[in-house]
Write a structure and sequence with these properties.
The structure holds two protein chains of two kinds.
Chain A: H1 20-25, E1 40-46, E2 52-58, H2 60-63, E3 68-73, E4 104-105, E5 111-117, H3 120-129, E6 131-136, H4 143-147, E7 160-168, E8 180-189, E9 201-206, E10 212-216, H5 221-232, E11 239-243, H6 259-269, E12 273-276, H7 279-285, E13 292-301, E14 306-318, H8 324-331, E15 343-352, H9 366-384, H10 388-393, E16 402-403, E17 408-409, H11 415-426, H12 428-433, E18 441-452, E19 464-471, E20 477-483, H13 490-502, E21 509-513, H14 530-557, E22 564-567, E23 570-573, E24 581-582, H15 583-594, E25 599-605, E26 612-623, E27 629-639, H16 646-665, E28 696-701, H17 723-735, H18 746-755, H19 760-763
Parallel strand pairs in A: 1-12, 10-11, 14-15, 20-21, 27-28
Antiparallel strand pairs in A: 1-5, 2-4, 2-6, 3-5, 7-15, 8-13, 9-10, 9-12, 13-14, 16-17, 18-26, 19-20, 19-25, 22-23, 23-24, 26-27
Helix pairs in contact in A: 5-6, 9-17, 13-14, 14-15, 16-17
Chain B: E1 2-7, E2 10-15, H1 22-29, E3 48-51, E4 54-57, E5 70-72, H2 85-92, H3 102-115, H4 121-127, H5 139-150
Parallel strand pairs in B: 1-5
Antiparallel strand pairs in B: 1-2, 3-4, 3-5
């Protein structure tokens, strides 16, 4: 069962997530399983209007309900504003525009009031009993409407939240019109719900000594600390944030949505407060992947060389800024690390609207821009009469290329190899040439490429993390790092890296989740930084500890350290004359004899941020009668550098396809003409289930070429980046359509078929 | 009202509200927190438990309906502190990532293997069609169930 990579004892094998045993037992306490002594329960009153002024809140009826302990509104709560996305005080790109409770509601789901009661049912009953008088204002339901000259302002200062341009490369030689292809495509991506099965929740307690403790399934305890402490005027050492096990995040729990309000309620109640959202509230009132529209205009030579690419992106931030400005800028920093393009212009605009708040989600702008670019490239391939694989091969970056937008190397970028090996494994050449046919069911294949990153390092952001590794007297190890396990196996990945470096089994290493009172500082678990940055930090830490062990053994044995080496949990003399000392014995003796502590604390600083790459191949079957598209075969190829945990890398890849099929074909948080989400839970937000999943093959390209531990690069986000694009390209190939509005639902597919009078056979004759 | 039922082989008798859901009784009255609540609408399957061997969404079942019946939850799978074959295989196969769907998946898989000891992959997928997973893409889960089904078993899977 356990696969091994030659040369490594643990790296490249299969390692279950650290808490898998407890998850299978059912005794791992997720957030909603926490039970604090004296705990009371909160519920939120959320706006039914997209845009309105709160004229009057009458809570007298609610207050009379037995069990109600407190009702809170903007009338008495602090009115200070905060940014739910902030990690550090003074962080650029953070807009403080949100408050605990609002007197002007800006989306259906905005917080108007909260009730604290002895039970959750009473709290919810009391919320329903609060009478709120609203004075409706004109809703602003999309970014175009928001930027219209006479649009109502969502916030003071207008609706244009952020604007930028990335411009690299000189104007290309234009050439004669006949020698080039100019093409314009507009692609829209939709609002997505993260759909972590574990709902959003937060617990908080404020004790009589003024200590606030927050239990949250978050992705950054230090960020939660910053936002809550700054808002509520508490010193940082009085705010302790403990990360609790989470049933998935996918970026939905990256921002601090419930921590501020729960903390405030706990300070008022002076009892532990639990706030757990239901599914409908999770969809409406937390965060969504923002919807955006990009217009792409490009110039290709007739041979398919991409000479110029101009993109104009308009992103709908929703009611509060959150991460949307940075998210949109991230979109503009992906394609120049994927394709060589002589001239790249990316204009981005971000608008406030009175719709659900946009936020970070798996891939953070990369899947959004990949959908745009890859759908556009397939249209170009059709017009240039080129195989889509050939068109991409003409333009993809090579290892060592400089990304002109970031000024940094793309590193050992093996995306071309991903494409060629993937095409061979998928039998692309044969399948792309096969006719989708004229029958009711049409089958075709599609391909897409994607690029992402490895950590946060950029001109705007440093990259570093601090960790401690301590060895015990029996040779076991404790890693103290601010880990935020999201379910992707970051803890076991770090254990595996340390195990490999020290020759100690991973199960002899313990990790803990982030706790701002005891964990060394770390930014958080996002930005594809866990394996590449935290993993490199763990490797450096283990290597330093190994040196300390050799040094201590040298003193104990009275031998020069050059004559010793550490192997398989022991320090051995090279010439084997003296006995080997196992690590535990070294720790015992060093402590007893010399009072030496064998632990290392150090800060690792990242110095590179190479590209992560994935190329994906999809086969779809479309029912032209019902408009239903089904993915029937799928291949994910990832430039992983080196798989530390093969089983979990493959799991990330397959899980990404599950979500990617959803974003291509069915998932969307839609709004009605009053800005009300049509959700009603998973009933109207269809997630791909086991029956709808195709078999997903995973092919890993491993070259150990960058600075990650053992050459490893990121996987969880990049694995999702090109998925939807590959599927939409396959649908367009099957039908000869130009669908570019995600998701390609049956309704959109049927509409596209109905709008094109040509017989199907003519339309699909494209390559 | 008083509810008397057998939970994981032990008879329990608890006072419940007339409108209590089976999920509330398990989690709040009996402290069996392994059964998760993901949607409260029978759409995600995280709260799947067995009622007389049948997999049901505990969020949809009025507790009064299980009067005198036999309930099994994830906590009842292990024997003498040792995981059963499905739990072991779920752990080893990478079928667990965030783990929130795991208890429900295990119960649906248990119900399947008890009524069909040699299911096809399609039958396995059908059996867990009501259990959503956002992490794994289902393949490792189906692999794990298939591997357990292929094992020669002493006696019945319910043992």
């Amino acid at each position: 069962m356990i696969r091994r990579v030659s040369g490594y004892q643990y790296v490249g094998g299969d390692h279950p997530v650290s808490d898998a045993v407890r998850k299978a037992s059912g005794d791992l306490a997720f957030g909603s399983d926490l039970r604090l002594p004296g705990m009371v329960h909160a519920a939120l009153l959320l706006s039914p209007y997209a845009h309105a002024r709160v004229m009057r809140v009458d809570s007298s009826r609610a207050r009379a309900i037995p069990g109600v302990l407190g009702i809170h509104t903007s009338a008495e709560a602090p009115t200070g504003r905060y940014c739910r996305y902030r990690i550090l005080p003074g962080q650029a790109g953070c807009v403080d525009d949100e408050s605990l409770f609002t007197s002007t509601v800006r989306f259906v789901g905005d917080r108007v009031a909260a009730v604290v009661a002895t039970t959750s049912a009473i709290a919810r009953e009391a919320v329903r009993a609060i009478e709120v008088e609203y004075a409706p204002l004109a809703p602003v339901l999309d970014a175009d409407a928001a930027l219209a000259p006479d649009a109502p302002s969502v916030h003071p200062g207008g609706n244009l939240l952020h604007e930028f341009e990335v411009a690299v490369g000189a104007d290309a030689e234009r050439g004669a019109a006949g020698e080039r292809l100019e093409l314009e495509t507009t692609v829209t991506t939709q609002r997505l719900h993260h759909a972590a099965l574990d709902p959003h929740l937060c617990f908080a307690d404020y004790d009589s000594a003024g200590q606030l403790t927050i239990w949250s399934p978050c992705q950054s305890v230090y960020g939660a600390r910053t936002v809550v402490a700054d808002l509520l005027g508490l010193p940082y050492h009085r705010v302790r944030v403990i990360k609790v096990p989470m049933g998935g995040s996918f970026g939905g729990k990256q921002e601090f949505i419930l921590e501020p309000v729960t903390a405030y309620l706990a300070m008022q109640a002076r009892r532990p407060v639990s706030l757990i959202l239901d599914r409908d509230e999770c969809i409406r009132a937390t965060t969504v992947r923002p919807t955006q529209r990009s217009r792409l205009r490009s110039v290709f030579t007739r041979d398919g060389d991409l000479r110029s690419l101009e993109i104009d992106t308009l992103l709908d931030a929703g009611a509060y800024a959150g991460s949307s400005p940075d998210y949109t800028e991230a979109m503009a920093h992906k394609l120049t690390r994927l394709y060589r393009v002589a001239r790249y212009r990316h204009r981005g605009r971000v608008a406030y609207t009175t719709t659900p708040v946009g936020g970070g989600m798996r891939g953070w702008g990369a899947p959004d821009i990949a959908a745009c670019a890859e759908i556009h490239l397939d249209r170009a391939a059709r017009r240039l009469n080129l195989d889509p694989v050939e068109l991409r091969l003409r333009n993809l970056v090579e290892p060592g290329d400089l990304d002109p937008a970031s000024g940094r190397s793309v590193g050992d970028a093996r995306v071309r190899e991903c494409l060629t090996r993937g095409a061979a494994a998928f039998d692309w050449a044969r399948r792309v040439a096969s006719d989708p046919g004229n029958g009711r069911w049409r089958r075709a294949v599609g391909v897409a490429c994607g690029a992402h990153k490895n950590g946060m390092l950029s001109d705007a952001f440093p990259e570093s993390t601090t960790m401690s590794l301590k060895m015990n007297e029996d040779g076991t190890l404790d890693l103290n790092a601010a880990l935020h396990e999201v379910g992707a196996g970051s803890a076991v990945t770090l254990k595996t890296i340390i195990a490999e470096a020290l020759g100690v089994s991973p199960d002899r290493i313990s990790t803990r989740e982030a706790d701002s009172a005891v964990s060394p500082f770390d930014f958080g678990c996002f930005g594809s930084r866990m394996t590449y940055v935290a993993g490199a930090s763990a490797l450096a830490l283990a290597t330093a500890l190994k040196e300390r062990l050799i040094e201590a053994a040298a003193a104990l044995l009275g031998l020069p350290r050059e004559r010793l080496r550490a192997i398989d949990g022991c320090v051995r003399p090279i010439d084997a004359q003296a006995p080997a000392l196992d690590y535990g014995l070294i720790v015992q003796r060093a402590r007893m004899r010399d009072g030496i502590e064998l632990g290392v604390t150090q800060t690792y600083r990242g110095t590179s941020n190479p590209g992560s790459y994935s190329v994906q191949f999809a086969e779809v079957e479309v029912d032209t009668f019902t408009g239903l598209a089904r993915v029937t075969d799928f291949l994910t190829v990832v430039d992983i550098g080196r798989a530390i945990n093969r089983q979990m890398v493959e799991g990330q890849c397959r899980g990404a396809v599950q979500a990617g099929i959803g974003s291509a074909l069915c998932e969307e948080v839609t709004l009605d003409d009053q800005g009300r989400p049509s959700s009603g839970g998973f009933k109207n937000y269809h997630l791909v289930n086991a029956v709808d999943m195709p078999r997903v093959e995973v092919l890993l390209v491993e070259h150990d070429g960058d600075d990650g531990p053992y050459g490893a690069k990121s996987v969880g986000e990049i694995a999702f980046v090109p998925t939807a694009a590959a599927i939409v390209n396959a649908v367009n190939r099957a039908l000869g359509t130009d669908l570019s509005h995600l998701p390609v639902t049956p309704e959109r597919i049927l509409a596209a078929l109905a709008s094109d009078p040509r017989p199907i056979g003519v339309r699909t004759a494209c390559v | 009202m008083r509810l008397t039922t057998t939970v994981n082989g032990t008879e329990v008798s608890v006072e419940i509200a007339a409108d209590a859901r089976l999920l509330d009784v398990l989690r709040e009255s009996l402290g069996l927190l392994g059964t998760k609540e993901g949607c409260a609408a029978g759409e995600c399957g995280a709260c799947t438990v067995l009622v007389d061997g049948l997999a049901v969404n505990a969020c949809l079942v009025p507790a009064a309906q299980v009067q005198g019946r036999g309930i099994r939850t994830v906590e009842g799978l292990a024997r003498h502190g040792a995981h059963d074959a499905l739990q072991r295989r779920f752990v080893a196969s990478g079928a667990i990532q965030c783990g929130f769907c795991t208890p429900g998946m295990l119960m649906s898989a248990t119900a399947l293997l008890e009524r069909n000891a040699t299911p096809t992959r399609a039958q396995i997928a059908e059996a867990i069609a009501g259990n959503l997973c956002r992490c794994t893409g289902y393949e490792a889960i189906i692999d794990a169930i298939e591997a357990v089904a292929a094992q020669p078993r002493p006696g019945h899977a319910a043992d």
